[in-house]
Amino acid sequence: MKIVIAYMRTQCVPQLMRALHEAGVGGLTASVVRGISGETSTFLYSKRPYELGHLPESLKIEVICEDDSVDRIIALIAQQARTGLPGDGIVAIQDVERVLRIRDMA
């Protein structure tokens, strides 16, 4: 199993969530996060970038999936999140050794 973690622009959220739902991808978590990416405009530094209100918003999506679903999920994310502008997003894939459902634990 793998966990796919993606950070992207918030304006891409509706199309991405619709595409993932239509593709049958479930069990995902979406959170609004703030931070300074590697492709940040320099104007942030003149606005006290470490004050939370001045940091740009992004969407963080986490999906735990089978190995054979990873490429399809990444393709959907890349297709929906691509705007052609710097800072479109980033995707990370990690191995998951074990997944336990809380209700199944003794």
How would you sum up this structure in a few lines?
The chain is an alpha+beta fold and 106 residues long.
Structure overview:
With 106 residues, this protein is an alpha+beta fold. It is 21% helix and 28% strand. Strands 2-3-1-4 form a four-stranded antiparallel β-sheet, with helices on one face. Helix 1 (13-22) packs antiparallel against helix 2. It is globular, with a radius of gyration of 16 Å. The two termini are 23 Å apart.
Instruction: Please give the radius of gyration in angstroms.
Output: 16 Å
Quickly give the structural class.
Answer: alpha+beta
Order of helices and strands: EHEEHE
If strands are numbered along the chain, what order do they take across the biggest sheet? 2-3-1-4
**What is the molecular shape?**
globular
Oligomer: single chain
Average residue pLDDT: 83
The end-to-end distance, rounded to whole angstroms, is 23 Å
| Major sheet attributes | 4 strands, antiparallel
Proportion of β residues? 25-35%
Helix amount, in percent? 10-25%
The number of E-state strands comes to 4
Return residue spans where pLDDT drops below 50 for at least 5 consecutive residues: none
Number of helices: 2
